[in-house]
Specification:
Helix content: 55-70%
Distance between the termini: 72 Å
Number of strands: 5
Structural class: alpha+beta
Strand content: 5-15%
Shape: elongated
Length: 462
C-alpha cells in the first residue's frame, strides 16, 4: 500500500513538472524589455505612425519628377530581385498553411491485396480497403511553436520584400540624380572647352601681333588648358553610359539611353531639421525584419525544449475486406483498430541538450543583431541629416564663389582685349570658375543623394 502511494506521488510530481515545462513552451513571443534600446523600441513600435513623416510618405510624394516616377514604376514592375522577394512571401505563406494543417489528423487510404500459396494447395487471395486516421497531439507545443514560427517567417518575408523595394526605389533615384549631375557637368565642360578654345585663339592672335608678354609660352599654356578640358569630357561620357546601363539593369531592360530633367532637385521636409524620433525608426522594414528573425529563434528554442518531453500519437484504422489466405469469395468484414503511442526520449538526452544549447546561442545572436539593427538605423538617419545640413551650407558658399569667379572671368576677358592683364590671370580665372561650377554640381548631387538616403533610412518606399 505504501509502495503504491509513493508511486502515485511520483507520477503526480512528474505530471506537474511536465505541465510547468509545457506552459513555458507555450508562451508566445513578446518584444524583450531588458535591453534599454529594445525597450524603447517596444514602447513605440505599435504606436500610430505620422502619415506626414518622410518615411511614411509614398514614394511618388517624395520623387515628383515625372521621368523618375516612370523609371521607378518600371523597376517595381520588372526588377528580378523584387520579383523573387515577392515569391519568398508566397513560399512563407505556403509553409504557414502547412503548419496550420499540422493540427488536423492525417487520413490515408491504402487498398491492398495479396495471394498466399502453401505447398500444392491452390492460391488463396485476400484483400483489404484500410482507412487510417492518425493524430499527433500538441501537449508540449511543438506544433504551436512551429505554426507561430511560420507566422513570423511570413512577416519576415514581407518586411524583407519591403526593404528590397525601398532599396530598389533608392537605387533608381540615385542613378537618376547622378545622371542629372553628370549631364550638367558635361554641359559645363563643353562650355568651358569653348571658352578655352577662344582664349587660345586670342593668345595666338596676340603672339602674331607681337604683343608684349604674349609669346609661344602663352599659346602653349592656353592650348594645354583647352586639351585638359577636352580630355575630361570622354570620362564624363563614359560615366553617363555606365549609369544608363545600371539604370537599365534595375528596370530589367536592355541597355539604352535614359533622358533626365536637368533641373530636377529633391526637397527635404522642414520637420526633420531638428531630428527624428525612434517612432519613425521602428517602422523601418529591416528593424522589423530583425525582430522577426529573433522571434523565430525564440520559437526554435521552445521546440528544442519540447524535444525533452514525450510525444503522444493516436491512430485509428478501419479496414473492410478479407484476411490474407482466405477465399476471395468469402464475405468481407470490418476490422477496426485503435492505438495510442507515447514516444519518450531515453537515449537522446545528450543530443537534445546540444540542440537546445545551440538554439539558445542562436537566439542570443538574433537578439544582438536585433539590438544592433535599431542602433544602426539611428546612426543612418543621424548621418543623413548631418550630411544634408553640411551640403546645404556648402552650397551657399560655392554659389557665392561661382558668382564672383564668373565676374572675374568676364573682367579678365575685357582687360585682355585692352591689353591690361596677363594671360596667366585669364587662364587662372577660367580654371577657378570651372572648378567652382563643378563643385556646385557635386554639392547639389550630394544633397539630393542625402535626401534619398534619409528617405530610405526612415523605411520609405511604400
Amino acid at each position: 500500500m505504501m509502495k503504491r502511494k509513493y508511486i502515485s506521488l511520483a507520477v503526480v510530481m512528474v505530471a506537474l513538472a511536465t505541465m510547468m515545462g509545457g506552459c513555458k513552451m507555450y508562451k508566445e513571443y513578446t518584444t524583450p524589455t531588458d535591453v534599454p534600446i529594445i525597450d524603447e523600441y517596444a514602447r513605440v513600435k505599435d504606436a500610430p505612425q505620422d502619415s506626414t513623416s518622410l518615411g511614411n510618405l509614398g514614394w511618388r510624394q517624395v520623387f515628383t519628377d515625372p521621368l523618375l516616377q516612370s523609371y521607378i514604376e518600371r523597376a517595381l514592375a520588372n526588377n528580378t530581385s523584387l520579383k523573387n522577394t515577392k515569391l519568398n512571401v508566397d513560399i512563407a505563406e505556403a509553409r504557414l498553411q502547412g503548419a496550420k494543417l499540422s493540427y488536423l489528423p492525417s487520413l490515408t487510404f491504402s487498398p491492398n491485396g495479396a495471394g498466399v500459396k502453401l505447398g500444392d494447395n491452390s492460391m488463396d487471395w485476400g484483400w483489404q480497403l484500410p482507412l487510417t486516421l492518425s493524430w499527433q497531439t500538441d501537449i508540449y507545443g511543438q506544433i504551436t511553436n512551429n505554426k507561430r514560427s511560420a507566422e513570423s517567417a511570413v512577416r519576415y518575408a514581407q518586411y524583407y520584400n519591403q526593404a528590397v523595394q525601398s532599396q530598389l526605389i533608392a537605387s533608381v533615384a540615385t542613378c537618376y540624380y547622378n545622371l542629372v549631375s553628370l549631364n550638367n557637368q558635361l554641359k559645363i565642360y563643353n562650355e568651358n572647352a569653348q571658352l578655352a578654345k577662344e582664349t587660345n585663339k586670342t593668345m595666338k592672335d596676340m603672339k602674331e601681333s607681337a604683343r608684349a608678354g604674349y609669346t609661344e609660352v602663352a599659346v602653349v599654356q592656353s592650348e594645354a588648358q583647352y586639351q585638359s578640358i577636352l580630355g575630361t569630357i570622354p570620362n564624363i561620357e563614359l560615366s553617363i553610359a555606365q549609369l544608363n546601363n545600371t539604370l537599365s539593369l534595375l528596370m530589367n531592360e536592355k541597355p539604352q539611353q535614359w533622358p533626365v530633367n536637368q533641373g530636377s532637385e529633391l526637397a527635404l521636409p522642414a520637420q526633420f531639421s531638428g531630428g527624428v524620433p525612434i517612432t519613425y525608426l521602428a517602422a523601418r522594414p529591416d528593424v522589423r525584419e530583425s525582430e522577426e528573425n529573433f522571434a523565430q529563434a525564440y520559437y526554435a528554442t521552445n521546440i528544442a525544449r519540447a524535444n525533452f518531453y514525450p510525444q503522444l500519437s493516436i491512430t485509428a484504422t478501419g479496414a473492410y475486406g478479407t484476411l490474407m489466405g482466405s477465399s476471395v469469395i468469402d464475405p468481407a468484414k470490418w476490422l477496426v483498430n485503435l492505438a495510442g503511442s507515447l514516444v519518450a526520449p531515453l537515449f537522446d538526452k545528450g543530443q537534445n541538450m546540444a540542440t537546445l544549447k545551440a538554439a539558445k546561442a542562436r537566439q542570443e545572436q538574433a537578439l544582438n543583431n536585433f539590438q544592433y539593427s535599431i542602433l544602426s538605423a539611428s546612426a543612418d538617419v543621424s548621418n543623413a541629416l548631418a550630411n544634408i545640413q553640411a551640403y546645404r551650407t556648402q552650397q551657399a558658399n560655392v554659389e557665392q564663389q561661382e558668382a564672383a569667379l564668373a565676374k572675374a572671368v568676364s573682367y579678365n576677358k575685357d582687360l585682355l582685349s585692352l591689353y591690361t592683364t596677363t594671360y596667366l590671370d585669364v587662364i587662372s580665372a577660367q580654371q577657378s570658375l570651372l572648378a567652382a561650377q563643378i563643385s556646385i554640381e557635386n554639392v547639389k548631387l550630394n544633397e539630393n543623394l542625402g535626401v534619398i538616403t534619409l528617405y530610405q533610412a526612415l523605411g520609405g518606399g511604400r
